[in-house]
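Quick one from the shared queue. A colleague (R.T.) flagged Aminotransferase as missing a structural entry in our internal table.

Convert sequence to structure tokens.
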Amino acid sequence: MSIDSETLVQHMNNQLSAIQPSDILAFNAEIANIPGIVRLTLGEPDFNTPEHVKDAAIKSIQNNESHYAPSNGTMALRTAAAHFLATKYNVHYDPASEVIVTAGATGGIYTALSSILNPGDEVLIPTPIFPLYIAIAKLNGAIPVFMDTSKNDFVLSPEQLKQTLADHPKAKAVVLNFPSNPTGVTYRRDDLKALADVLADKPIFVLSDEIYSELTYGDAHVSIAEYLPEQTILLNGVSKSHAMTGWRIGIMCAPKAITAQLGKIHQFTVTTTTANAQAAAAEALSNGMDDAQVMKKEYMARRDYLYKALNDLGFKSAKPEGAFYLFSKIPAGLPQDSMAFCRELAHEARVALIPGSSFGPGGEGYVRISYAASMANLETAVKRIGDYVASKATQTEAN
């Protein structure tokens, strides 16, 4: 009698039972076939990669750069990345020994957490947050410790961090993501200095995902690596800044001793990223340092429109200071179960948003709205949401 696959599943990695498929991708697929639906769901820039960046990739292909690149990335890209980060954010890394090119920021998150965490370790995660960090922590047998920031306008305060560290003194790492997915809030210089002061004397890693750094509105982005260079594993990349999500190029930086260890996981999971994509990213970070400015201007106009329009409909939000998301409270009188609300809105109003429950504690009762969409689509979505809200009010009055 042969062994069937269902039996073999029981012998797979025990940690897989703690992980569910992405709510975000599952919901997006669930509503994809609703005719005429406006999807404000995925964090996907609606701009195209700049022409000079595409040309660099084409030239790389024509030059037969089709062989393995060095595992940590081409020296051209690592040098461009180090120069970009130093120029933009005053953080300094040796491209030869402190920079690794990853398969998107996602690859960096996996490499960093897999390198840091042992089974049973605790990792501090402010929520609501993109759920990838939670899943990867669990996959490594670690225990996520959630810090619900919803009562502090979605900003982790030094007091909350200090109290959580007191309650969990053996925590191995803390995750930061700013500007934030899903809230769009970010940390100003004084905020980061206060958090750094709490962490500076602790043997704790800081995994700082700053992939949206170039889409920061108002004050210029500040990296926590400026304050905690010895403890920080910094993630960045070209996905959001240069509309290159499909190219899958991220940048991970850390002190030399830490990078040497990170490189082991990277080497045995990815080997190296695509050569022509690295050539394109090198061009983006060297000759396209300000390519994001045109996109940022448009995102700001969309943010301002959507923030006011939805606020007028009763969807209250912390005003985003970066990225391209609104995280809005579902108005009273509408379903407060965010998944139920999003399903109803999708089927009745043909507008797709992401349930706030997908982003951990503090997210229930909210929805994430991506404004990486044309102004025409945003206007259509607002009109449909307005009609939906009005119809629900009419039904309430009739009852």
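Residues 5-48+292-393 form a domain with the Aspartate Aminotransferase, domain 1 fold (CATH 3.90.1150.10).
DSSP finds 13 helices and twelve strands in the chain.
Added to the table.
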